[in-house]
Amino acid sequence: MKIKLPYRYAVYAAKPCVANEERCWMNIRTKKLSEAARNNARYWFVCAINGDRRVFSAPAAELEKAFHEHAINVIDRGAASEKYSLYTDYKRGEIFSAVTQRDTQMVFSLMREPQGEGTAMKGEGTMLPRGRRFEPVRYEELSERGKEAYSIQKLMSLLADYGFECQRVMNDAWGADVMATRESPEEGNEVMLLQIKGRASGERADEHRERDLYMAIADPTSRGWYIIPHDGTAQSIIPETCLQTDTWESGVYRVRKLSAAVENKLSPYFFPWVSEEEATR
After folding, report:
1. Closest by Cα among 103, 1, 101 to 51
2. Which distant-in-sequence residues (6+ apart) come within 8 Å of 81 by Cβ?
3. Phi and psi of 259, rounded to 5°?
4. Is residue 134 part of a domain?
5. Are residue 28 and residue 46 in the same domain, yes or no?
6. Considering only CA atoms, which of 257, 207, 262, 256 is closest in space to residue 232?
7. Radius of gyration of the chain from Cα atoms?
8. For residue 214, what is the domain's CATH number?
9. Angle between helices 60-69 and 30-38 (to 10 degrees)
10. Are residues 251 and 143 in the same domain?
11. Taking a C-beta distance cutoff of 8 angstroms, is the pair 24, 39 a contact?
C-alpha cells in the first residue's frame, strides 16, 4: 500500500526488511535533504508497517550532518536521483546504516510525532493534512521571476497598510510593475504607477515628463520601502561623482548601494512597515 505524503520533505516505508523485520529500508534524495537543510526545515519519516503507522521527524540539517559523519551509503551516486540508503527501526525511530541483526551502531534518533490532530487518513492510505505546514522562502534561492513576484507582493502588502488598492501591471510600455490607487478626501482619487528596482536607478527628469511614475526600492534592513517620484529625484539622490559619468550623459543613472548619505536624502520618501499596534489605533 503506497503512502502519499502531506509533507514537502518526507520519506516513507510500507513493509519491513526481509533480513530484519524490526527495520525498514528508506531512501532519501541527497539534493532534497540538502534543500531541506538550507531551508531550516524538518524531514519526516512515515512508517506504516503491519497496520502500525508511526510518524517521526528530525531537523534536516542535523540529519545531513549525521549522514556525513557516519558515511551513510549513497546509491546512484552522481545521478540526478542520487540517494542516501539507510535503515530505520520503525518502532523506536532509530536510524542505522545497515540492516543486519549485528549492526548496533545507531546513526540518529528521530523524534516521535503525535497522531490525530496533524493528519487524517483518506482512501488508499493517502494522508491529508488538516493544516498545511509552510516554510519561509529564502529570497536569494528564488528564480529571477520568483524574486520579481516576491518583491511585488511585498510592496503591495505595504501599500495596503497605507490605504492603497494595488493591481499588478502585466504589460506596460513604461515598465510599471504595480498600479496603486486610493481615495483621498483632499485630492480625490490618487494613482501611482510603480517600478520595482533592485537598486536606485532611472532616467533623467525629461525622460519621464508627463508621467506619474514612481520607483520603489526595498530598504536593505527590511524596515520598509522607499517610494520616489521617478522624474524628479536624480539631483537629490545621486552623488556629484555619479552625475559626471557617461551613463548619466546618456540619460541613465544607477546607485549600486544606498550609502548613509543617499539614505539620508531618500528619507522623505520612506514608507515604513505598519505595526499591528499602529494599525489598530
Report:
1. 1
2. 29
3. -70, 170
4. no
5. yes
6. 207
7. 27
8. 3.40.1350.10
9. 130
10. yes
11. no
Task: Mark whether 163 and 260 lie in a shared domain.
Answer: yes
- Domain C-terminal end among 129, 152, 176: 129
Count of structural domains, the chain: 2
**Domain-terminating residue out of 129, 158, 179:** 129
Judge if 123 and 154 occupy the same domain. no
The C-alpha cell 520598509 sits at 224
- Indicate whether 4 belongs to any domain: no
In whole angstroms, give the CA distance from residue 45 to residue 92: 12
Q: Is residue 38 part of a domain?
A: yes
Name the residue with cell 502588502: 157
Domain span at residue 30 reads 10-129
CA pair distance 201, 60, nearest whole angstrom: 40
Digit-by-digit pLDDT tens for the chain (281 residues) are 445 555 778 898 989 988 888 899 999 999 999 999 998 889 999 888 888 888 999 999 999 999 998 889 899 888 888 999 999 999 999 999 888 766 777 899 999 887 543 443 333 333 444 455 567 788 788 888 888 888 899 999 999 988 899 998 877 656 788 999 988 777 678 888 888 876 555 455 445 444 578 888 888 777 888 888 776 665 556 555 555 555 555 555 555 566 777 777 778 888 898 765 555 45
Q: In this structure, what C-alpha cell is assigned to residue 223?
A: 524596515
Cell 495596503 -> residue: 160
In this structure, are 101 and 163 located in the same domain? no
CA distances from 122 to 3, 68, 90, 125 (A): 11, 37, 22, 6
